[in-house]
Amino acid sequence: MDPRALADKTVDFAVDMWGLAVAIWELVTRRQCFIGISMPELLDFHRRGEWKIPPLEGNDFIADFIQACSATPRFRRTSAQLLELINLEAKQV
């Protein structure tokens, strides 16, 4: 879950997109995104602006997709925008 939701106790579309970014990152890397980090530490990272999902190398499209899902909430893409990105990528393949 987006640490912002835990800190602010707000759940909205942006929280879902952040969760999607983490799930995709974990599926692609076959690792846990925040292993060894306690909830208080994660919230502290959030407060300091250091709670980014680790960078992903090797597939620019997936890395860009994860970035689009995990950007600062006001800059996160909507599901319609993400679907458009997927469709554009599919046309290029």
TrEMBL record:
Gene3D superfamilies for this protein: Transferase(Phosphotransferase) domain 1 (1.10.510.10)
- InterPro entries associated with the record: Kinase-like_dom_sf
Superkingdom of the source species: Eukaryota
- Name the SUPFAM superfamilies on file: Protein kinase-like (PK-like)
Q: What is this protein called?
A: Protein kinase domain-containing protein
